[in-house]
Amino acid sequence: MDRRDFLKKTAAGAGTLALASCGEKKSGAKASGASSFGEGEMTYRVNPNSGDKVSILGYGCMRWPMKKDENGRDIIDQAQVNTLVDYALEHGVNYFDCAPVYLQGQCERATGEALKRHPRSSYYIATKLSNFGNPSREEAMRMYQNSFEQLQTNYLDYYLLHSLSDGNDFNRRFVENGMIDFLVEERKAGRIRNLGFSFHGPQEGFDQMMAHHEKYHWDFVQIQLNYVDWRWASGRNTRADYLYDELHKRNIPAVIMEPLQGGRLSKVPDNIVARLKSREPEKSVASWAFRFAGTPEGVLTALSGMTYMEHLQDNLKSYCPLVPLTEEECDFLFETAILMQQYPTIPCNDCKYCMPCPYGIDIPSIFVYYNKRINESTIPTERESKAYRKLRKSFLDEYDKAVPALRQADHCIGCRQCVEHCPQDIDIPRQLRRIDEYVEKLKQDKL
Amino acid sequence: MPKKKKSNPLKVTRVVLGTLFFLAITLLMLGVSDVLPHYLGWTARLQFMPAVLALNVGSFIVVLLLTILLGRVYCSVICPLGVLQDSISWLGRRQKKNRYSYSPAKNWLRYGVLLLFIVALVAGAAALAALIEPYSAYGRMVSSVSHPKSWIPAVVAAVTLAVIAVLAWRNGRTWCNTICPVGSLLGLLSRFSVFKPVIDTTKCNGCMKCSKNCKAACIDSKAHSIDYSRCVVCMDCLEQCNQHAISYKLALVKQPKPANEKPAAATSKSSSKAAKTDEGRRAFVVGAALAVGAGVLKAQETKMDGGLADIIDKEVPKRQTRITPPGSQSAQNMYQHCTACQLCVSNCPNNVLRPSTDLAHFMQPESSYEKGYCRPECTVCSDVCPVGAIKPISVEEKASTQVGHAVWIRENCVVLTDEVTCGNCGRHCPTGAIQMVRLDGSKPENRRSEGSRWGGNQSAPERLIPVIDEERCIGCGACENLCPARPFSAIYVEGHQVHKTV
Question: How many CB atoms lie within 10 A of CB B169?
């Protein structure tokens, strides 16, 4: 699907905005400080299968704030989660996306804890069957039952087969163990209201999954969509325009993940910031990505892992109401995407699926640090350049601060246990080695 | 109302210079910056004992000439322990005025200690002599606070500080004039110094104020005499005397006697330990293997996302021979020259050097690679060492200086215990001394020990084990430090008694 198609859908999508309160304020009075933008009502989309009225902003519960308990273990900061959930519900967010494996297995419990303080009918819960390692029926059943317990509910609004890549994967994890038949029965029984899957994989894999639609009827599908992946998906991921088109023509609502590429579309190089900001000085860099993700009409909700209140508030600005992108604005973003690709960042979205590394490496922190330096153009490259000395020192000092020495890239032994977990298909050991070799040269001053 | 006393310019000069020296050397010892040694290293090299031990003739002569010319200004300006004592005694005097009095010299004690000190040095026991040597005593105090690596120097430093603080608070410079071997030695010269404070008996009214404020307790006001061997020319008396009866001036008395206390480089017991390797090593290896087994992380049944695996701290392997840093040339050289000032320990940016707990090398530095390894681009310890225990070495020389060699411990290697591919030791060896070979010893064809390249769909990477070319290994410890086996690495460095170029 090309740009024009995207916009056709976009234009149609605008029709569903009837619920949004439009109306530019034409007041001549001076603003008292807060932006007047986003003070309207949340935009909602209607699920054609269930009639659910879902907020275009969905809460991704993979990135709840963490803190250390008295034993130094990472635990979810429940008080913060409660505050965020209350604020989100109050401002119209009604979709919460969990998984049993998120946040070291604490996601469902913490989210359930926060949500049960509100009427069950005021929100939709999504969670997943994350049976990656062990495809046995027992393990899958245990995980399914446990989700109800953790989330403290007796029905799940949206249930996903977590991160499928193709038909083989589907067969191994859901057909051979009979789980898909079981789950379809559960849907009939009303304990699952919508059944779908999330996808990371090649185009053929998606086709195989679409071929199963007639038999199992996917109520929704979760895909990775943003203005970079729309055409330029990395690794084994399929370009999002294809995925969206395949869903849309079957009238399957799309749930959007990684609309911001785990923050990579908000932490961008200076010239990209300038480019986006000069168009809309008062809007955040991230707002462009969220408006893009919400613009196609077949999008049910766009998930954002909002760790901090400012993330939530900024996204509310973008979606209350959603002002769909114009044709010209889409072109502008696609050009931006091309510009971004000149920066050799590592396509890591900091999802932490690769973690924990059994040898203690902090993989995402290393990649996030490296990408940050690339985006800031503070990677020392030539010894001759004037800034080299300063950059070298700051690169090495900051690296030590960002990642403890024991968890840095030089400790990667290349066991490759992480590789299969990466949804972006990054060859993690290879990238770590590349960074290690670079750092080693930098340390030895032999760049 | 006490009349505001006019400060004496000579005393002000002494205080200012002393403070500057003190700050410079303290900064150096704090090891806060890697550029400081470049600018401030000379303050350490000017220290008397370091100069003697390093056979640093220049510094040695400067200090001797300074003493013959001006008296013991070394003690009141250059010596950080001296300035520390002055600071403490200044506080003491604020609490109680006129608290000192003249006391005769305890010559049997000072020269007895000096003699013992020289004997210890000549016998090659620098570490023992270092206990009372003022510069390294101060160094230990600073490093115990800034870089606590081991409790032993910290305890020694605390005891020294306690003794010195009490003595300084109550009596000023008692330590310097009874215990300190440098003070005693310089005292032999300062007796005959060209410039010295002199009492003008025609002006003196016998108020004894000078005597009561003399930190060195060396002014006998009744006899109008000053014991110049103990006077540290602090100039306090010049300021105290309301009659202006004391002045610092040219007062040539006699030609000074030369002081030839320079310690000869002596031989000490040559510790050529026979290679009674196997038993101790085997016991260690078995223990290590057990510990590693316990330490390996079990994969969870359901892998949850996120979090960091615990990392078990590495433990010091049992080395037959200790490792001394490149530049130290040999265990012997280190043993003879090091005063255990901890300057190298505080400044080591890679956490390699730590004070020895072995009594024979008490508090002298040794290398170990649990927290870091001796990085190829670093020569900090050799740059800062003021005593020549670690002699200056260039990055290029270091790259070919063998301080030890790596030893592989089959039982600990994750390639065998965890059945994974690794090769992290070989990948990080700066001299290429480690090759990766098949378990049967044969070489892999295309040397692709590093896992598959882009695309990642090739056959699983081969499990290869390291073999070490001991001739090329320099003992830097990269392999030991980066080895994933914990708490004991599967590859560790054995030290060499004498370093050599490879």
Answer: 18
